[in-house]
Design a protein that fits this description.
The complex is a heterotrimer of chains A (about 200), B (about 100) and C (about 350).
Chain A: H1 3-24, H2 28-48, H3 52-77, H4 91-116, H5 135-142, H6 147-172, H7 181-191
Chain B: H1 2-15, H2 18-22, H3 42-65, H4 67-70, H5 72-94
Helix pairs in contact in B: 3-5
Chain C: H1 2-37, H2 53-63, H3 74-91, E1 101-103, E2 106-108, H4 118-128, H5 130-139, H6 143-174, H7 179-185, H8 198-201, H9 203-216, H10 228-231, H11 241-266, H12 281-302, H13 308-337
Helix pairs in contact in C: 1-2, 1-11, 1-12, 2-11, 3-4, 3-5, 3-11, 5-6, 6-9, 6-13, 9-11, 9-13, 11-12
Classes of the chains: A mainly alpha (about 200), B mainly alpha (about 100), C mainly alpha (about 350).
């Protein structure tokens, strides 16, 4: 058993553990933290495959940016894990739950089967090509063959900004209040009047 | 060597909490205000725009590495990409969500 | 295999010890320099020139009571200081401090881990640094802490983008993300030993880096999170004893990390003058880092604090476009010069 295998097993277990804890936590902040743990472990897995760039990207974008956004939203809404999520007794919702669970189990069984029966592996466990997922090959592909999707990503991100701005505008209503920034944020703090 | 970095990260990690652990005094009490206040939702907009530009930066790193091989072509396509994003920033600014007053 | 593990472990331990000691004496440096700049003498009672002040401070913090208010969220409250401290340390894993050398019959590399995505590693680790502050601020259950935490995290994410972009210029010139290769490319044998430093080829990038780095480490003039006149002490208001010390060390470790990265990216890393080759490279490295740290303190003594709206406007509408422009223009020049 080489050191690579040991590291892989540790990170794989941590990743699954983090993901499991994430969905079972009541406290959303703890949920986010476990998700970050899971992401970091996944990044280690990527690095094990030689996909350094993908691993770094996962940490930077997911753990470093998107999770911060999630935390902000949780703090903005002041979720503390004590909210009543409502009783889920509807027949439709129960049916959907069972359906989704069965589908997920079926998918898992399918994946596990395809991994453990060597004849049907489609490159999941086979050794990656040299330099696969590293910076230079990624960029070469990204800026030549996948140029069009890359620019489309830009448009997608633009749409995201526009959407957020529109939502924020609706939320804020009349923005003509002329208050000093310090008063606005610090004032809210002391007298508790939410803007 | 790469794997070692993560290996050492693990080595470093357990080492650091020890000062906090080994000295466990009893806690004194100190009462303070309670409420978790609602803060400005502008912070949310900033976080979202941050995510978007963070993605851009992540794209820029491989672009910079491969720049010597790709040349002018890469420069032009990156300028287009950045212009698209900057239009978003400009839009957000014009709509006043980036202003603090 | 065994030898690699042995040398690497020794290096990790030595680097951690050096960084922590460096942090301790960085506090002394700051107080002493700040004192003299304000016509005071700074710490002077503990040891010669007050040099033992950090030891006294450390001992004091260790023996202080650890006060945890009732209103905190335990888990995140405990995690906060650690999360602000660990990323700072992780940065040092990819900083090359010397050329490869052998000592006591063992071959050492001049860096703990020669990642070929060193800069991405630094960027990733920096992006994780925000959690310490935001969790500490949120879990403390105090309004000052919450506002400080939110403010500092918003500030950090705002400047993080420009921080990443300011480095892109250097990468375009160098065409690599590896820290050791960056240092190697800045070497020069001539008497003008600094001729190949990226500082000269990308001066705007350096200024941008400097500005963003100060903002990232929450230092004056960007120390809004701990604007004591408004927020008491910001996100670490409710912390005491070793937890507070961890925040404090984390801040200084971050400063050191930023100084080391700047040295590597813009000041040629451990490269020294060729005619003084008998001096170990690590000495040059430390000298450059020291100069950078001195500038940090100097800036603190010079500039007043920004107002928060000024800070955000400056970050998004000045630094960000400027950083992108710098990256693009650098690309254009590189193309033009071949």
């Amino acid at each position: 058993m080489s050191i690579d295998t040991v590291i892989f097993f540790i990170s794989a277990v941590v990743a699954v553990f983090g993901a499991t804890m994430m969905i079972t936590q009541r406290n959303p902040v703890a949920s986010v933290l476990y998700f970050i743990v899971s992401l970091l472990a996944q990044a280690v897995c990527y690095v094990q495959l030689g996909a350094l760039f993908v691993g770094a990207m996962l940490v930077i974008v997911y753990a470093g940016a998107i999770m911060v956004l999630f935390l902000f939203v949780i703090m903005l809404l002041n979720l503390r894990g004590t909210e009543d999520l409502g009783a889920s007794t509807g027949r439709v919702s129960r049916f959907t739950k069972y359906l989704v669970s069965i589908l997920l189990i079926a998918e898992l069984v399918f994946v596990i089967k395809s991994v453990f029966i060597p004849a049907t592996t489609t490159g999941i466990m086979s050794m990656p090509a040299d330099e696969f997922g590293n910076v230079a090959p990624v960029s070469k592909l990204l800026f030549t063959r996948y140029l069009y999707p890359f620019e489309l990503t830009g448009v997608l991100l633009l749409v995201a900004i526009v959407g957020a701005v529109v939502l924020a505008k609706i939320d804020r209503g009349d923005k003509k209040r002329v208050t000093d920034e310090l008063e606005e944020s610090a004032g809210q703090a002391t007298d508790g009047t939410a803007g | 060597m790469v794997l070692f970095a993560f290996f050492f990260a693990r080595l470093i990690r357990p080492a650091n909490p020890y000062p906090a652990k080994s000295i466990n005094y009893e806690c004194a009490e100190e009462t303070i205000g309670t409420s978790w206040i609602r803060f400005n939702n502008r912070f949310y907009i900033f976080a979202l725009i941050f995510v978007i530009f963070d993605v851009e930066v992540v794209f820029l790193f491989p672009w910079a590495v491969a720049f010597n091989k790709l040349g002018l072509y890469a420069l032009v396509e990156m300028v287009i990409f950045i212009m698209i994003l900057f239009y978003g920033l400009y839009y957000a600014w014009k709509k006043g969500v980036l202003k603090w007053v | 295999m065994f030898e690699v593990i042995l040398t690497s472990s020794i290096q990790v331990v030595v680097v951690i010890v050096v960084v922590l000691t460096g942090c301790a004496w960085a506090t002394w440096l700051e107080r002493k320099v700040l004192g003299h700049m304000q016509q005071r003498i700074g710490p002077s009672y503990t040891g010669p020139y007050g040099l033992l002040q950090p030891v006294a401070d450390g001992l004091k913090l260790i023996f202080k009571e650890d006060i945890v208010p009732d209103s905190v969220e335990r888990l995140t409250y405990t995690l906060g200081p650690m999360l602000s401290f660990v990323p700072a340390l992780l940065t040092f894993a990819v900083i090359p401090y010397s050329r490869d050398f052998s000592l006591f019959g063992l071959e050492f590399k001049g860096v703990i881990s020669d990642l070929n995505i060193g800069i991405l590693w630094i960027f990733a680790v920096t992006s994780l640094g925000v959690y310490g502050l935001v969790l500490a601020g949120w879990s403390s259950g105090s309004k000052y802490s919450l506002l400080g935490g939110i403010r500092s995290s918003a500030q950090m994410i705002s400047y993080e983008v420009s921080y990443g972009l300011s480095i892109v210029g250097v990468i375009v010139i160098a065409g690599t993300l590896s820290m050791t290769e960056l240092v190697a490319k800045q070497a020069s044998d001539s008497i003008w030993f600094f001729e190949n430093w990226y500082l000269w080829r990308n001066p705007i990038g350096f200024l941008l880096y400097l500005t963003c780095a100060i903002a990232e480490t929450n230092r004056t003039p960007f120390d809004l999170p701990e604007a004591e006149s408004e927020l008491v002490a910001g996100y670490h208001t409710e912390y005491s004893s070793m937890r507070f010390a961890l925040f404090f060390i984390g801040e200084y470790a971050n400063m050191l990390a930023v100084a080391c990265v700047a040295t590597t990216l813009f000041f040629g890393g451990w490269n020294g003058p060729a005619f003084l080759s008998f001096v170990p490279p690590v000495i040059w490295f430390l000298i450059k880092v020291f100069v950078f740290m001195f500038c940090y303190v100097w800036l603190r003594a010079t500039f007043p604090r920004f107002r928060y709206d000024q800070l955000m406007r400056f970050g998004w509408l000045v630094l960000l476009p400027l950083a992108i422009l710098n990256a693009m223009v650098t690309g254009l020049v590189v193309l033009w010069l071949g």
